Amino acid sequence: MRRSDLLSALAVALALSACQSMPHAAQAPVAAPAPTAAAPAAPAPAPAALPNDNLNATVWMQQTVEYAAVTQTVYRAAEARLDQALKDKTWDALVPEEREKPAANLPPAVIVDVDETVLDNSPYQARLVRSGGDYDEASWAAWVNERRARAIPGAVAFAQAAAARGITVLYISNRAVDLDQATIDNLKSEGFPVKDASVFMGLGTFVPGCEQNGTEKDCRRRLASRHYRILLQVGDQLGDFVQIISNTPEGRAALFRQYQTWFGQRWFMLPNPSYGSWEPALFNNDWTQPADVRRKAKQDALRTD
């Protein structure tokens, strides 16, 4: 190869080498991909409602025509007995042990419980179901002081029918004494006849010569017996009619057997699946037990045959 040809070849090779070693920045720029917008965060799932033993009972009492039908049936049956009871001077709806004064010449009265008998507190129960809370005196007092409980279907008509016959309506309740005025205000606003403050006998009512046992109402019924002949009683708990000595399923059953002929005659019971002394009777009346233990006791009480 000639020298001139060799030099020419070397020159070409060097040029090619220089082109291959150029940095990438000198090459045509490549467009960067456009940034992708971040997907919106999925909404957090709503917290699951905690199981609550009172859900079905509360919604049944609030939303079904069946509940209203039952309470109206009971109250109409009670009203139908008023004239018979008023005419018969020997008629008395108090058990003999609670009658302290002969009834024949006393003015007539009927005794009604308040909560879930004449006033509907299911909104308070609904609040507990939604919040997962439990009954406590502070929240209960706040509800009572709202004075917003509505009348149980049929209750006002019965009370007014009694009052129209000259029969005093007595309200015996386990509401605390500091809730007396709020309760009376609520009763009046719903149309219940309230003759005066004496016809409301709350938990703090003092009864001379009788010592109250817990929330039992026998002392207050004895007080009523000193002034009235009791024609009928209406309530939603066994203890609204007679003192419960032994709050066990067996003790309650024995009391029912003893007085079962009085129901539908002198005593009229309204349904209350939401709460009552029937519930703690199933777990030895011990509310200090954890909820799951109490629930287990109720499950164990279920019959499957």
Spell out the key features of this protein.
10 helices, 305 residues, single chain, five-stranded parallel sheet, alpha/beta, globular, two-stranded antiparallel sheet
Descriptive account of the structure:
This protein is α/β, with parallel strands linked by helices and 305 residues long. The strands form two sheets. A five-stranded parallel beta sheet has the order 5-4-1-6-7, with helices on both faces. Strands 2-3 form a two-stranded antiparallel ribbon. Strand 6, helix 9 and strand 7 form a beta-alpha-beta unit. The radius of gyration is 38 Å and the shape is globular.
Distance between the termini: 116 Å
The helix-and-strand class reads: alpha/beta
- Share in helix: 25-40%
Average pLDDT, to the nearest integer? Answer: 89
Tell how many strands the DSSP assignment holds: 7
Give the spatial strand order of the biggest sheet.
5-4-1-6-7
What share of residues are in beta strands?
A: 5-15%
Largest sheet: 5 strands, parallel
Helix count equals 10
Question: Uncertain segments of ≥5 residues (pLDDT<50)?
Answer: 1-30
Shape: globular
Helix/strand order: HHHEEHHEHEHEHEHEH
Radius of gyration: 38 Å
